[in-house]
C-alpha cells in the first residue's frame, strides 16, 4: 500500500495537511492509512417502496408574502413533509388544510405528527426532526391506533396538526416537520405559510399559489417508505467494504408530479421525507466495525442500527442502538470539506444481520456511505509505518576513537618479533652498548615499517569501507527513488481511478439528466400535444356551437329584420297612400275650385249643359266609384291573399330553416358522437384518424359554409323578389289608390275611416299575433337553449371523462414506458459499471502488481543495502577486534620491551659497575706498580672512538612510551604551534653531536632504515 518514507509517517502528514487547510478532523479512524479508496462496494437493491409523499420544500425561502407552498392528492397511507425558511419580517405559521373534493364524506386518521425547533441553525432543525423521527417511530401494525380521526363532508375542508397554529416561525428561521395520515378516499392537501392569527381554512380559498424555485423539491411522490437490502453479504475476510445511499445510481431518487403546475414532472433529489430500512447481511470469521462516512458534504442526523445475532450464545437476539451525528458530539455537521470524516456506529460479529433505519436529515447532503471494516484492519495498534533510518556516524569506519592525542601505537605484534634484533655476542665483535644501539635501531626501523604498513592497510580498509558505504547509500537512494516512483505510480493509479470514477459518475449523471430532460420533454410534449388536441377539439366544438348559435341568431335577426322591413314598408306604403290621398284631395279641391270658377263663369252660358254634364258626371262618378270600389276590393283581396301567402311562405321558410338548423345540429351531434366513438375505438391510429377527422371536419365545415352561403344567397334572392313584388304591388296599389281616390272622392272620408279602423284592427291583430309568435319563439328558443346547454354539458362531461381516462391511460403508459426505460438504463448502466469496474479492477490489479513489484525491488535493494551495512559492520567489528588485538599485542610487546630494557639497563649498570670495579682494581694494581697519570692518559687516547650516527640512546629507549588513551609528554615539551600538524623529533638526547665515521652512502642507508619519528600535535 505505502512505499518507504524517510522519517515521516502518514499520520503526521495528514495532521500537517489538516493544519494547512484549516480543517478540524472529525475522524474516528484514519481511512486513508487503511486503504479507504480500495474498499469494495456493496450495492443495495430496492425491495419495495410504498405510501404517498407530499413534499413541500420549494420555495424553500418564503417571501415577501406567504401563500400556498405545496398541494397534492393523497389516497390511503400518506405523509406530508414540509421544510421552509421564513424570509418575512413578521412571524408566520405553517398550516395544513385537507379538502374533500368528492361527493361523499371522507374519514382521515392522523397517525403521527412531528415538528422540529424553529431556528436559524439549519443543521439543528434537520437534526432535531431526524432524532424525533427515530424516537417516535410510526406504528405500522394493523391495529395501530391513530392520534385522532376526523370526517370531512363533501366539498368540505378541515385543518390538521393544530399545534402548528401556536408555533411562530420568526424571520430567517427554518421550520420542518412531518404528518402521517390514512384516508378512506382521495383527499387534497394544502401546505401554506400564513401570518399568525389568520384563519387557515378561510385562507385556503383565496391564498395565492407560490411559484416553485429552481431546486424543484415539491410535489406528490410514491415511495414515502423504502425498503432496501444488500444482496451480497459482507465478508470480513476480504477487507473493507462500503454501502452507498442516495447516489441516484443503486439508490434512485423517487419521481412524482407537481399538481400545482398541471402535474409537471418533478424529482425528489435526495429522497428527503423518505423513511429508509436498509438490511446488510455479513459473514466471515472475525469481528468488524461499522462507520458512517458522508460523501456529499456536511451531514447531521440520527441512525438506528439493529443487529440480529445469528451465531454464538446470543443467536436470535437483537441489539438496537441509536447514533446521533452532530450536535452533542462537539461538531455542527460531519464531512464539511472532506470525504474522509467518519463516525463509528458500533462493533459487531461476523454473521450478524444489520438493519439500519433513518430518514435523510434536512439541511444535510447526500450521498452517504456505511463502511464495514474488519477489526484486524481497523485496530489502530496493528498499524505499521515503514521508514528508512540512515546511520549518521559513518566517519570512523574502523571504530578508532577520535579523541585528541590519538596516536598509532608502534611495536611488535603478537610477540613474533620479540626475539628479532637480538645480537649474538659470540659472533659479534661490537661492544654491548653498540649492540644495544644497533638492536634499537633495527627495532625502530621494523616498528616504523609496521606502522606504515598498518596505516596503509587502515587507509585501504577505510577506502573499501567508504566505497561500500557509498554503494549502500547509492542502493538505498535507488531503493528510495524506486519506492517514490512506486508511490507516485500508485497515487497516479489512484488519481486515474478516481478520475475515471468521477468521469463515469459525471457521465452517468449527464446521461441521467439527459434522459430525465428527454423524458420530461417527451412527457411535456405529449401533454402539450394532448392539451393542444383537446383544445383544438374544444375550439372546434365551440366554433361549431358558435356557428350554430350564430346561424340561429342570424336567422332570428333576419326574421326580425324582415318583419321590421315589412312593417316599415307597410308604414311607408300607408304614409305614401295617405300622402297621395292628401295630394289627390288637394288636387281635387283645386280642380273643384277651378271647376266651380269655370262653372260659375260659364254658368250663365251653359246652365243646361252644366246641369246635363253634372248629371252625366254624377252618373259617371257613381259608375266609376262603383267600378273603382269593386276593383279596390278585388285588389285588397288579392293583396290580402298575397300577404297571407307571403306570411305562410315565410313561416314555412322559418320552419324549414329551424328544421334544417335542428337537423344540422343533430347531424353535428351525431357526427361529434361518431367522431368521439371513433377516437375512443381507434386510439392506436390516433394520428391517422385525427388527420381524417380534421379533413372530414374541414370538408363538412366547408359544406356547411357553402350551404349557409347558398341559404343566405337564396334568402337574399327571395328577399329581393319579395321586395320587388312588394314594390310592384305598392306601385299598383298607389295607382289603384289614385284612381280610386280620383273616382271616389266623395266617399273617401268614409272609406278612410273604415279603412283606418280596419287597418288599426288588423294592425292590432297582427301585433298580437307577432307578439304571441315572438313569445312562442322565445319560449321555444329558451327550451332549445336549455336543452342544448344540457346536451353540451353532458357532452362536455362525457368528453372530460373520456379525456381524463385517456390522460390516465397515457400517464400510465408513459409511467410504464418510463419505468421500462429506467430499468433498461439501470441495466445498461449496471453492465457498463460492471465492465468499467472489471476494467478498473484489472487496472488496479496491474497497478498493484507494479506497485508490489516496485516494492519488491525496493525491498530487495533495501535488503541488499542492509546486507551491505551488515557486512560493513561485521568488517568494522572485525577491524576493531583486529585493532584491539594489535593494540594489546603492542602493549604486551612494549611491556616486554620495557622489561628487556630494564634488564638491559640493569646488565649495563652491572657491566659498568663491573668495569668500574675492574678499572678500580686495575688502577689499584697500577698504583701498586706505580704508573703515572700520563700513562693513563695515553691509554685513553689510544682507545678507538666508536660512534653510531642517529643512534638512539639508552635513556630514549628506556623512557615510557605514549599510549592511545593518554599523552605522556609534559605540556612544556609540546609544540606551541596549533596549525602545525607534525613536528620532527630528533632521537638524539642531550644535544650530543658525535662525529660520523661512516661514509655518505652508509649515512643515506642508515637514514632510510631509521626514519625520524613523527608524533601528531595538537590532537
| Secondary structural class | alpha+beta
What's the gyration radius in Å? 66 Å
Describe the global form.
rod-shaped
Proportion of residues in extended strands: 15-25%
Mean pLDDT: 79
Outline the structure in words.
- This protein has eleven helices and 26 strands.
- Helix 5 (432-601) runs parallel beside helix 7 and helix 6 (607-681) runs antiparallel to helix 7 (686-743).
- The protein is of the alpha+beta class and 1019 residues long.
- The radius of gyration is 66 Å and the shape is rod-shaped.
- Strands 2, 3, 5, 7, 8, 10, 12, 15, 16, 17, 20, 21 and 23 form a 13-stranded mixed sheet that branches. The protein has a five-stranded mixed sheet with strand order 1-14-24-19-22. A four-stranded antiparallel sheet has the order 4-11-6-9, with helices on one face.
- It starts with 9 loop residues before the first helix and ends with a strand.
- Helices cover 54% and strands 16% of the residues.
- The chain has a domain at 36-380.
- The relative contact order is 0.08.
What are its keywords?
disordered N terminus; rod-shaped; 1019 residues; 16% strand; 13-stranded mixed β-sheet; 11 helices; 5-stranded mixed β-sheet; 26 strands; alpha+beta
Describe how the helices and strands are arranged.
Blueprint (H helix, E strand, L loop, with lengths): L9 H12 L18 E2 L2 E13 L4 E2 L4 E8 L2 E10 L5 E8 L6 E10 L6 H14 L12 E5 L4 E4 L13 E10 L3 E9 L4 H7 L11 E13 L3 E2 L5 E5 L9 E4 L5 E4 L7 E6 L1 E2 L4 E7 L7 E7 L9 E7 L18 E6 L4 E6 L9 E7 H4 L53 H170 L5 H75 L4 H58 L4 H182 L3 H10 L11 H5 L23 E4 L14 H10 L3 E4 L3
Parallel strand pairs: 1-14, 2-5, 3-5, 12-17, 13-18
Antiparallel strand pairs: 2-12, 4-11, 5-10, 6-9, 6-11, 7-8, 7-10, 12-15, 14-24, 15-16, 17-23, 19-22, 19-24, 20-21, 20-23, 25-26
Amino acid at each position: 500500500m505505502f512505499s518507504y518514507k524517510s522519517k515521516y509517517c502518514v499520520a503526521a502528514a495528514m495532521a500537517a495537511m489538516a493544519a494547512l487547510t484549516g480543517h478540524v478532523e472529525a475522524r474516528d479512524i484514519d481511512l486513508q492509512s487503511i486503504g479507504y479508496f480500495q474498499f469494495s462496494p456493496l450495492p443495495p437493491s430496492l425491495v419495495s417502496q410504498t405510501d404517498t409523499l407530499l413534499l413541500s420544500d420549494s420555495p424553500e425561502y418564503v417571501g415577501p408574502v406567504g401563500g400556498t407552498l405545496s398541494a397534492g392528492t393523497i389516497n390511503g397511507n400518506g405523509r406530508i413533509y414540509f421544510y421552509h425558511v421564513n424570509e418575512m419580517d413578521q412571524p408566520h405559521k405553517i398550516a395544513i388544510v385537507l379538502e374533500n373534493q368528492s361527493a361523499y364524506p371522507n374519514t382521515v386518521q392522523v397517525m403521527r405528527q412531528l415538528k422540529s425547533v424553529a431556528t436559524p441553525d439549519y443543521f439543528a432543525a434537520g437534526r432535531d426532526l431526524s432524532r424525533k423521527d427515530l424516537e417516535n417511530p410510526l406504528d405500522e401494525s394493523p391495529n395501530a391506533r391513530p392520534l385522532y380521526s376526523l370526517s370531512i363532508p363533501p366539498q368540505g375542508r378541515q385543518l390538521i396538526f393544530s399545534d402548528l397554529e401556536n408555533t411562530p416561525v420568526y424571520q430567517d428561521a427554518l421550520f420542518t416537520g412531518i404528518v402521517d395520515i390514512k384516508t378512506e378516499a382521495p383527499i387534497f392537501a394544502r401546505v401554506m405559510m400564513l401570518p399568525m392569527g389568520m384563519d387557515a381554512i378561510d385562507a385556503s380559498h383565496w391564498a395565492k399559489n407560490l411559484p416553485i424555485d429552481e431546486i424543484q423539491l415539491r410535489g406528490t411522490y410514491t415511495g414515502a417508505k423504502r425498503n432496501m437490502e444488500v444482496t451480497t453479504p459482507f465478508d470480513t475476510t476480504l477487507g473493507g467494504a462500503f454501502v452507498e445511499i442516495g447516489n441516484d445510481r443503486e439508490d434512485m431518487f423517487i419521481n412524482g408530479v407537481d399538481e400545482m403546475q398541471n402535474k409537471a414532472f418533478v424529482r425528489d433529489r435526495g429522497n428527503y421525507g423518505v423513511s429508509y430500512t436498509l438490511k446488510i447481511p455479513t459473514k466471515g470469521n472475525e469481528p468488524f466495525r461499522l462507520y458512517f462516512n458522508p460523501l456529499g458534504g456536511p451531514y447531521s442526523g440520527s441512525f438506528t442500527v439493529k443487529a440480529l445475532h445469528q451465531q454464538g450464545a446470543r443467536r436470535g437476539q437483537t441489539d438496537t442502538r441509536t447514533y446521533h451525528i452532530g450536535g452533542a458530539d462537539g461538531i455542527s455537521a460531519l464531512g464539511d470539506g472532506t470525504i474522509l470524516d467518519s463516525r463509528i456506529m458500533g462493533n459487531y460479529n461476523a454473521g450478524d444481520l444489520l438493519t439500519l433505519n433513518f430518514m435523510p436529515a434536512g439541511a444535510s447532503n447526500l450521498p452517504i456511505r456505511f463502511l464495514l471494516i474488519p477489526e484486524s484492519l481497523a485496530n489502530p495498534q496493528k498499524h505499521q509505518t515503514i521508514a528508512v533510518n540512515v546511520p549518521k556516524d559513518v566517519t570512523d569506519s574502523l571504530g578508532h576513537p577520535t579523541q585528541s592525542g590519538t596516536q598509532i601505537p608502534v611495536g611488535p605484534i603478537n610477540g613474533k618479533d620479540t626475539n628479532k634484533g637480538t645480537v649474538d655476542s659470540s659472533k659479534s665483535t661490537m661492544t654491548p652498548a653498540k649492540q644495544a644501539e644497533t638492536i634499537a635501531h633495527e627495532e625502530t626501523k621494523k616498528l616504523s615499517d609496521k606502522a606504515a604498513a598498518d596505516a596503509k592497510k587502515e587507509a585501504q580498509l577505510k577506502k573499501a569501507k567508504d566505497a561500500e558505504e557509498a554503494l549502500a547509500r547509492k542502493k538505498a537512494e535507488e531503493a528510495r527513488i524506486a519506492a517514490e516512483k512506486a508511490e507516485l505510480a500508485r497515487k497516479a493509479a489512484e488519481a486515474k481511478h478516481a478520475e475515471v470514477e468521477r468521469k463515469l459518475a459525471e457521465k452517468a449523471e449527464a446521461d441521467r439528466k439527459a434522459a430525465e430532460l428527454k423524458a420530461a420533454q417527451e412527457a411535456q410534449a405529449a401533454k402539450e400535444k394532448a392539451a393542444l388536441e383537446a383544445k383544438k377539439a374544444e375550439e372546434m366544438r365551440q366554433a361549431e356551437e358558435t356557428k350554430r348559435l350564430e346561424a340561429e341568431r342570424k336567422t332570428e335577426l333576419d326574421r326580425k329584420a324582415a318583419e321590421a322591413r315589412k312593417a316599415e314598408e307597410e308604414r311607408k306604403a300607408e304614409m305614401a297612400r295617405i300622402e297621395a290621398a292628401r295630394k289627390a284631395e288637394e288636387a281635387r279641391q283645386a280642380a273643384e275650385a277651378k271647376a266651380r270658377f269655370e262653372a260659375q263663369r260659364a254658368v250663365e252660358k251653359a246652365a243646361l249643359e252644366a246641369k246635363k254634364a253634372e248629371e252625366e258626371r254624377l252618373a259617371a262618378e257613381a259608375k266609376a266609384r262603383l267600378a273603382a270600389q269593386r276593383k279596390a276590393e278585388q285588389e285588397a283581396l288579392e293583396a290580402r291573399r298575397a300577404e297571407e301567402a307571403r306570411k305562410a311562405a315565410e313561416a314555412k321558410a322559418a320552419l324549414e330553416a329551424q328544421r334544417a338548423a335542428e337537423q344540422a345540429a343533430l347531424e353535428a351531434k351525431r357526427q361529434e358522437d361518431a367522431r368521439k366513438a371513433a377516437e375512443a375505438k381507434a386510439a392506436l391510429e390516433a394520428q391517422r384518424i385525427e388527420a381524417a377527422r380534421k379533413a372530414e371536419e374541414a370538408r363538412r365545415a366547408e359544406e356547411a359554409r357553402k350551404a349557409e352561403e347558398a341559404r343566405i344567397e337564396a334568402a337574399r334572392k327571395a328577399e329581393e323578389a319579395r321586395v320587388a313584388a312588394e314594390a310592384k304591388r305598392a306601385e299598383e296599389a298607389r295607382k289603384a289608390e289614385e284612381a280610386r281616390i280620383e273616382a271616389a272622392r266623395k266617399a273617401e272620408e268614409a272609406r278612410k275611416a273604415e279603412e283606418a279602423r280596419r287597418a288599426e284592427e288588423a294592425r292590432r291583430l297582427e301585433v298580437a299575433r307577432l307578439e304571441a309568435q315572438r313569445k312562442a319563439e322565445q319560449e321555444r328558443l329558451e327550451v332549445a337553449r336549455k336543452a342544448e346547454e344540457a346536451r353540451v354539458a353532458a357532452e362536455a362531461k362525457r368528453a372530460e371523462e373520456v379525456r381524463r381516462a385517456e390522460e390516465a391511460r397515457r400517464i400510465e403508459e408513459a409511467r410504464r414506458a418510463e419505468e421500462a426505460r429506467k430499468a433498461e438504463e439501470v441495466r445498461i448502466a449496471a453492465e457498463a459499471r460492471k465492465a468499467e469496474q472489471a476494467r478498473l479492477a484489472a487496472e488496479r490489479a496491474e497497478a498493484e502488481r507494479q506497485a508490489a513489484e516496485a516494492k519488491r525491488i525496493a525491498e530487495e535493494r533495501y535488503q541488499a543495502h542492509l546486507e551491505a551495512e551488515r557486512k560493513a559492520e561485521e568488517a568494522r567489528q572485525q577491524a576493531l577486534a583486529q585493532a584491539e588485538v594489535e593494540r594489546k599485542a603492542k602493549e604486551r610487546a612494549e611491556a616486554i620491551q620495557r622489561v628487556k630494557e630494564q634488564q638491559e639497563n640493569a646488565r649495563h649498570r652491572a657491566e659498568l659497575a663491573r668495569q668500574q670495579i675492574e678499572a678500580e682494581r686495575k688502577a689499584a694494581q697500577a698504583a701498586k706498580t706505580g704508573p703515572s697519570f700520563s700513562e693513563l692518559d695515553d691509554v685513553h687516547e689510544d682507545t678507538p672512538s666508536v660512534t653510531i650516527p642517529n643512534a638512539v640512546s639508552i635513556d630514549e629507549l628506556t623512557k615510557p612510551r605514549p599510549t592511545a588513551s593518554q599523552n605522556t609528554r609534559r605540556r612544556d615539551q609540546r609544540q606551541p604551534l596549533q596549525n602545525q600538524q607534525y613536528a620532527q623529533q630528533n632521537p638524539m638526547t642531550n644535544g650530543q653531536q658525535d662525529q660520523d665515521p661512516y661514509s655518505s652512502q652508509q649515512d643515506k642507508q642508515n637514514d632510510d632504515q631509521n626514519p625520524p619519528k613523527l608524533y601528531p600535535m595538537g590532537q
